[in-house]
């Protein structure tokens, strides 16, 4: 069942007599669970990397019970507040003394077992809370979340600063480099800690993976429960993509294609809108493969798909009544006005029919109702975003993906193996299902290798997301005998880099031997040729960049001009072509150097060049073919124009007619016969460049060209000389590669992010947070009090010290601060009401100043707007809410989801609480500001926005 890497016990170490079990379970333990418990009883730590639904929580429960048995405290951390709330409820049913700390909720903080978010534990470690001395065990749930780009660093900080000598329980999804992570933990806590890696080899419930191609009337088994890829079924699925496969019943292709019951032929073509998901849900329900979770990557799509099932009812009358009862009980403690919110009224009819929605835009109380109903089997079909797969122990029989691609903020890409495993892992309920069913909907051709990598590629490697934050740096500077390099050198990022050192050294030695084995004659000739060629190319690029400035070249890009085109992005040559139309720019404000001019060119492509051109077929406006050549009309950017010739022809009256095309082809063919690739080009004088510096560069080019022409490799190249030059080039390439690798080896001795630290220190000095000796100043003590996850500690500190908030009404303060915790993108047509523009302008000025100092210190690159992350779209909403408006009224002021508003308000409350502490600190000592922040909390912390969790 499991693969266990356990450290051997020293021979001199006596066998321990184990006490009775700290807790017993009403079910037989799996091998990996028993091995984990044995390691904990031996006093060691464990990393349990197990498949979804394997039963990792059992190990956590035992870790808690053992610590309590030994009269020690235990901390359980999770990545998200919702998961912390659920674990608090679960543990409270088993243990007497359980507390909760999540920033916005604190319950029984003196308990022996404390459930908290990782950020709370990090803050406690920096402050040196006395309670930590009593901790015997720390449990990290979902530790693979450490790879998260923005918040993963919190896990590394916390693990590095954990108390020495206590036990650690790391719970994770399967990760390929689990031993590497465990070795890192041991390295930073030696000699106190041994970490046993315990991994499950397979899922308790195997999965079957199906494809549903757009337009098909069935699903196709492509990976069976033994993880075998079914090539025949995959090919069939790709064949029917976008086609109507007709009706039918039963199974085909050896269980490959499952037809939908009652499917009708004759629809023709690919289906549009919600129809495909309707068909899949009907198939799933007909074959009793529910409950089903349908994963989409957009909130709006979840809601559209749920509404599309309006005509279907999956609950009987008794289940309908139960849903109604649970829902009414959950809403009972809300205000009367809040119970009639559109979001609530729209959801209850769906839930009564057994259909649920779950995404971050929902009100938290609605998400929790959906979770409880799903656990009770009263929601048969759940439409969700991928956040539902994080930590929530809510398996289904079937999982459906509406797409296998998602937009990650930068690009539309295929899911990684890890993402797919995390979500598909919800399929298959232990003890209930023989297999779990996973259905992936696809609407385009997919390569088999892509699908194999997706469905069987394994989990994502756990790589460090460590980065420096100002809060980390300032907190470490504040502690005696510790500096930021302490954290950097112990980070997982540093460990992973050092781990590659021996292999890098071996590769360097191998390269050195390879270089020694290559002998070169006439090295002086080749050195001179290489040096001259490199300088010549550099100078020619300088000339070209000047000559191709729009103000010089655009007037010559008229119809009929002969141009040489080389695609700038990949240097693909299209050869010589004929300009079809004048150069176009997106603006009409003259010849701007920054405008993206485009030009249409008729390009004659033959042999290899034709093959290159065909690869750009999506860019073609038209494609003409003759017996001898292919003529393409292609749209290029101005920087794709390599050379502008002196020649310009008269275009045919109708260049698209057959006679016109023939004329263009004959003209280009004649040009090729007469000049080859050396068509005379326009000179600088001809295009009107009169610049002494430019003339100086041209003279240097002439001199370099003369030296190059005298080089023996150009003047009298023999076959022997050419072979010797090939050896020289091969050795030079290896030497360059060796130099790069040796630089990497040298950098290994330095801590990661050394340069970034120096740049951050410059910023902190410029803004008066530290002095020249790196001693912290008054502002730093305030910044250390602010531990927001948005890394806004410097901005908030500057806001306090500028005094902008001192004379501002409390309602406007909370409205302004909402810009820093808001995640709702500002709509294109958004207009900020006039009363908020003044405060917002002052905030932007502070943001811009910090950004300018950061640019001058080399920390960030110039370009882009630093104020883009300051989002004012919910300022008015927050202001009116603080003024006492009803929630049903404020949601009408924005297009944001209700859940996004609530999440913003709760993060705002946490920020206000931290600012209140900062304002009261000796560094500021403003009771007036302190009281304003507390009043702000009082104004916003009410009604449905801060409704208590159903798990508490």
From TrEMBL:
SUPFAM superfamilies: P-loop containing nucleoside triphosphate hydrolases (SSF52540). GO terms for cellular component: nucleus. Residues 276-480 form the Helicase C-terminal domain. GO terms for molecular function: ATP binding; hydrolase activity; RNA binding; RNA helicase activity. It is found in: Nucleus. It comes from the Eukaryota. InterPro entries: Beta-barrel_MTR4, DEAD/DEAH_box_helicase_dom, Helicase_ATP-bd, Helicase_C-like, MTR4-like_stalk, P-loop_NTPase, RNA-DNA_Helicase, SKI2-like. Coiled coil: none annotated. PANTHER family: ATP-DEPENDENT RNA AND DNA HELICASE (PTHR12131), EXOSOME RNA HELICASE MTR4 (PTHR12131:SF7). This is DEAD/DEAH box RNA helicase, putative. It comes from Bodo saltans.
């Amino acid at each position: 069942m499991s693969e266990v890497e356990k450290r051997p016990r020293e021979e001199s170490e006596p066998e321990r007599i184990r006490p009775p079990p700290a807790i017993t379970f009403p079910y037989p333990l799996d091998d990996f669970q028993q091995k984990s418990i044995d390691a904990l009883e031996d006093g060691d730590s464990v990393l349990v990397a197990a498949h979804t639904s394997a039963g990792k929580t059992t190990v956590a429960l035992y870790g808690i019970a053992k610590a309590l048995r030994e009269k020690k405290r235990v901390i359980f951390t999770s990545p998200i507040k919702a998961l912390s709330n659920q674990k608090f409820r679960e543990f409270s049913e088993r243990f007497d003394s359980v507390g909760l700390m999540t920033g916005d909720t604190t319950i029984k903080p003196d308990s022996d077992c404390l459930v908290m978010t990782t950020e709370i534990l990090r803050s406690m470690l920096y402050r040196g809370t006395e309670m930590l001395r009593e901790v015997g065990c720390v449990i990290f749930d979902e530790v693979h979340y450490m790879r998260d780009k923005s918040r993963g660093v919190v896990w590394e900080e916390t693990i590095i600063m954990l108390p020495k000598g206590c036990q650690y329980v790391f719970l994770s999804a399967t990760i390929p480099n689990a031993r590497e992570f465990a070795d890192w933990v041991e390295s930073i806590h030696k000699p106190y800690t041994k970490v046993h890696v315990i991994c499950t080899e397979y899922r308790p419930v195997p999965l079957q993976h199906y494809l549903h191609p757009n337009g098909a009337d069935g699903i196709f088994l492509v990976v069976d429960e033994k993880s075998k890829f079914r090539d025949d079924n995959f090919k069939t699925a790709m064949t029917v993509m976008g086609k109507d496969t007709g009706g039918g019943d039963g199974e085909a292709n050896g269980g490959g294609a499952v037809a939908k019951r009652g499917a009708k032929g004759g629809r023709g073509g690919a289906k549009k809108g919600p129809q495909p998901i309707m068909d899949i849900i009907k198939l799933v329900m007909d074959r009793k493969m529910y409950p089903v979770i349908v994963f989409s990557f957009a909130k709006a799509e979840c809601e559209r798909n749920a509404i599309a099932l309006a005509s279907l009812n999956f609950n009987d009358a008794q289940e309908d009544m139960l849903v109604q009862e649970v829902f009414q009980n959950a809403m009972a403690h809300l205000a009367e006005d809040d119970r009639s919110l559109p979001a609530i009224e729209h959801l209850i009819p769906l839930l009564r029919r057994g259909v649920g929605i779950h995404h971050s835009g929902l009100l938290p109380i609605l998400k929790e109702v959906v979770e409880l109903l799903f656990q009770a089997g009263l929601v048969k079909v759940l439409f969700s975003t991928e956040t539902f797969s994080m930590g929530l122990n809510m398996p289904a029989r079937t999982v459906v993906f509406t797409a296998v691609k998602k937009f990650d903020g930068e690009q539309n890409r295929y899911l990684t193996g890890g993402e797919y495993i995390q979500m598909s892992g919800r399929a298959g309920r232990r003890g209930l299902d023989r297999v779990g069913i996973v259905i992936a909907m696809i609407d385009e051709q997919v390569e088999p290798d892509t699908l194999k990598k997706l469905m069987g590629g394994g989990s994502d490697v756990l790589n460090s997301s460590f980065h420096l934050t100002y809060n980390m740096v300032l907190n470490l500077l504040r502690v005696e005998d510790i500096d930021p390099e302490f954290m950097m050198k112990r980070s997982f990022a540093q460990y992973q880099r050092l781990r590659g050192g021996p292999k890098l050294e071996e590769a360097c030695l191998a390269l050195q031997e390879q270089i020694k084995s290559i002998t070169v004659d006439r090295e002086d000739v080749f050195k001179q040729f290489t040096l001259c060629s490199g300088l010549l190319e550099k100078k020619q690029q300088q000339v070209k960049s000047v000559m191709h400035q729009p103000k010089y070249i655009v007037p010559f890009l008229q119809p009929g001009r002969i141009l040489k085109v080389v695609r700038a992005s990949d240097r693909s040559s299209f050869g010589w072509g004929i300009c079809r139309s004048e150069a176009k720019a997106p603006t009409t404000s003259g010849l701007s150097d920054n405008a993206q001019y485009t030009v249409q060119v008729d390009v004659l492509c033959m042999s290899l060049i034709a093959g290159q051109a065909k690869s750009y077929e999506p860019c073609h406006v038209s494609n003409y073919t003759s017996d001898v050549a292919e003529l393409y009309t292609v749209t290029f950017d101005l920087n794709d124009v390599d050379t502008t010739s002196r020649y310009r022809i008269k275009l045919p009256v109708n260049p698209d007619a057959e006679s016109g095309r023939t004329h263009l082809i004959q003209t280009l063919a004649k040009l090729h016969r007469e000049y080859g690739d050396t068509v005379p080009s326009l000179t600088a004088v001809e295009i009107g460049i009169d610049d002494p510096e430019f003339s100086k560069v041209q003279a240097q080019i002439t001199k370099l060209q003369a030296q190059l022409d005298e080089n023996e490799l150009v003047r009298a190249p023999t076959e022997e000389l050419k072979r010797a030059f090939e050896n020289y080039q091969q050795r030079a390439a290896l030497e360059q590669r060796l130099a790069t690798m040796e630089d990497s080896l040298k950098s290994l001795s330095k801590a990661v992010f050394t340069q970034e630290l120096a740049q951050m220190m410059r910023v902190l000095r410029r803004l008066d947070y530290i002095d020249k000796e790196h001693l912290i100043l008054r502002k730093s003590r305030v910044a250390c009090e602010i531990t927001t996850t948005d890394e806004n500690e410097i901005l908030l500190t500057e806001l306090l010290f500028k005094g902008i908030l001192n004379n501002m009404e409390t309602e406007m303060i909370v409205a302004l601060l909402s810009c820093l915790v808001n995640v709702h993108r500002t709509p294109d047509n958004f207009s900020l009401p006039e009363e908020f523009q003044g405060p917002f302008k002052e905030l932007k000025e502070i943001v811009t100043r910090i950004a300018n100092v950061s640019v001058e210190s080399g920390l960030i690159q110039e370009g882009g707007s630093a104020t883009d992350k300051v989002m004012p779209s919910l300022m008015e909403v927050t202001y009116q809410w603080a003024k006492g408006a009803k929630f049903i009224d404020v949601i009408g002021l924005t297009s944001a989801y209700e859940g996004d508003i609530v999440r913003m308000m709760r993060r705002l409350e946490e920020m206000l609480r931290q600012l209140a502490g900062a304002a009261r600190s000796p560094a500021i000592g403003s009771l007036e500001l302190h009281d304003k922040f507390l009043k702000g909390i009082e104004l916003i912390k009410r009604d449905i926005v801060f409704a208590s969790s159903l798990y508490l």
